[in-house]
């Protein structure tokens, strides 16, 4: 992979730098669908949604569960500023399953207002976290 053009990607939350390295490409969940960013991509500034971030680096694919955020791309650099992010290995599947089941239980009670919004958010995020947790790093 030596000599191949790469893009510098930084994934940053309020608490930590989750990822920082040169990559071949990455795909983020945006408000209009998934966006794949390659080296030398045109300048871009876009909001993103909760979902799965896929990073291809040195022929391997890494998966992260990410919250809402902003992606900025320019000059062969990308900064992904997000609420939170977790590598697949950081996700505790048992805790996520418990949160999902609790959210399902609350949703069956047909809550209203903030309770409904909160339960839906926990349920949605738990589905994303489970998907990412079950993925393993793989080689292309």
From TrEMBL:
<dbReference type="GO" id="GO:0045259">
    <property type="term" value="C:proton-transporting ATP synthase complex"/>
</dbReference>
<comment type="function">
    <text>Produces ATP from ADP in the presence of a proton gradient across the membrane.</text>
</comment>
<keyword id="KW-0472">Membrane</keyword>
<dbReference type="InterPro" id="IPR020546">
    <property type="entry name" value="ATP_synth_F1_dsu/esu_N"/>
</dbReference>
<feature type="domain" description="ATP synthase F1 complex delta/epsilon subunit N-terminal">
    <location>
        <begin position="8"/>
        <end position="85"/>
    </location>
</feature>
<dbReference type="GO" id="GO:0046933">
    <property type="term" value="F:proton-transporting ATP synthase activity, rotational mechanism"/>
</dbReference>
<keyword id="KW-1003">Cell membrane</keyword>
<dbReference type="InterPro" id="IPR036794">
    <property type="entry name" value="ATP_F1_dsu/esu_C_sf"/>
</dbReference>
<keyword id="KW-0066">ATP synthesis</keyword>
<dbReference type="GO" id="GO:0005886">
    <property type="term" value="C:plasma membrane"/>
</dbReference>
<dbReference type="InterPro" id="IPR036771">
    <property type="entry name" value="ATPsynth_dsu/esu_N"/>
</dbReference>
<protein>
    <recommendedName>
        <fullName>ATP synthase epsilon chain</fullName>
    </recommendedName>
</protein>
<dbReference type="GO" id="GO:0005524">
    <property type="term" value="F:ATP binding"/>
</dbReference>
<dbReference type="Pfam" id="PF02823">
    <property type="entry name" value="ATP-synt_DE_N"/>
</dbReference>
<keyword id="KW-0813">Transport</keyword>
<keyword id="KW-0406">Ion transport</keyword>
<keyword id="KW-0139">CF(1)</keyword>
<comment type="similarity">
    <text>Belongs to the ATPase epsilon chain family.</text>
</comment>
<comment type="subunit">
    <text>F-type ATPases have 2 components, CF(1) - the catalytic core - and CF(0) - the membrane proton channel. CF(1) has five subunits: alpha(3), beta(3), gamma(1), delta(1), epsilon(1). CF(0) has three main subunits: a, b and c.</text>
</comment>
<dbReference type="InterPro" id="IPR001469">
    <property type="entry name" value="ATP_synth_F1_dsu/esu"/>
</dbReference>
<keyword id="KW-0375">Hydrogen ion transport</keyword>
